[in-house]
Amino acid sequence: MRLLEEKIISEGRVLSDQVLKVDSFLNHQIDPSLMNEIGKEFAARFVNEGITKIVTIESSGIAPAIMAGLYMNIPVVFARKRKSLTLTDDLLTASVHSFTKNETNEISIAKKYLDSNDRVLIIDDFLANGQAALGLVEIVQQSGAQVMGIGIVIEKSFQKGTEKLKELGLRVESLARIASLTNGEVQFINDKVEELV
Amino acid sequence: MRLLEEKIISEGRVLSDQVLKVDSFLNHQIDPSLMNEIGKEFAARFVNEGITKIVTIESSGIAPAIMAGLYMNIPVVFARKRKSLTLTDDLLTASVHSFTKNETNEISIAKKYLDSNDRVLIIDDFLANGQAALGLVEIVQQSGAQVMGIGIVIEKSFQKGTEKLKELGLRVESLARIASLTNGEVQFINDKVEELV
Question: Which residues does the annotation say bind xanthine (chains A, B) (predicted)?
């Protein structure tokens, strides 16, 4: 998605070979117009999948997910993150390890907001090692619902997340795919192809 | 806001005289169309205030705030909640006590996303005792920016939040104002007036 790539180039900060900071428009400050375009793009890419519900995770997944939900006219459910969970009877839960923060959280969704008839689109802001997305897949599958695809705003393609999700037979659509962050520079996958569009 | 009140009546669950649960459309599962209408309404109410930025708090404030930001064509910044903060040099911070959860969190916004020229609209999902809103006001004022108003989705008018904010000379616009939750029933303020509209 050209608009998103341009925003990453102009405002993203490469902190290391592994870390891209985009807190001026996605993770802390949020650009609503860009989120609107992102939502429209997710809706277009998954229009034929009969999606009934979007699942995301707090907090940075909420803005892109809500815009996609608006265009698809379906509800959004966000998983909550907690250090530990008590009283899990009414909850679907999974453990998610964050390599960047080096911490493990329990994520959860109330059972009543997913059922076996749901066809779910999972949306998240970043895909790196895939831990959050895999946790969300696990939760959706616990409910008996079907994961129809994963929509990612920014994919760090040099990490293993996409590969792991595709190995599970899941469709992954990432709006910006980063091939590398070496030398303080963002290189996208398919740069050249997209320039011809 | 009639649409919101109807949603509260049909889907809200009164858990006690103090607690209204609206996690089917606002706090856990989110209704994007309703958020869209809420964003439009906030934008209309604050259209003459020259707002340059919306400030909210994770996680449930994000959806209404992002929709308001879309209609007002301005950025949204969400404060993060943490049990404790280290390295606060680049952060504006405040302490917020939650009476419902009986815990105190540090909330923070990066200094660079607020400056003294900003005219800020604070948006949050609930206003009860006003602790979160007061924490956000404190953060905005630390930056030298001006708080132009507070937009609340659901106000529990029988608690002290609105009063405290108004005592500070702040304009509070709440889209649903709950007079009481006694006997398991939601009573709105101005019920009768609104029926005549």
Answer: 20, 27, 156
Fold of B2-196: Rossmann fold (3.40.50)
pLDDT of the residue at A191: 56
Give the residue extent of every domain in chain B: 2-196
CA–CA min distance A113, chain B (Å): 7
- Model confidence pLDDT, tens digit, residues B29-69: 999 999 999 999 999 999 999 999 999 999 999 999 999 99
Helix (H, G, I), strand (E, B) or coil at A120: strand
Instruction: Check CB contact under 8 Å for B80 and A28.
Output: yes
Confidence bin at B192 (pLDDT 50/70/90):
low
Q: How far apart are CA B190 and CA A4, in angstroms?
A: 45
CB-count exposure of residue A69 (10 Å: 0-12, 13-18, 19+): buried
Query: Are B67 and A62 an interchain contact pair (Cβ–Cβ within 8 Å)?
Result: no
Q: What is the mean pLDDT of residues A188-193?
A: 72
| CA separation for the pair B98, B127 (Å, rounded) | 11
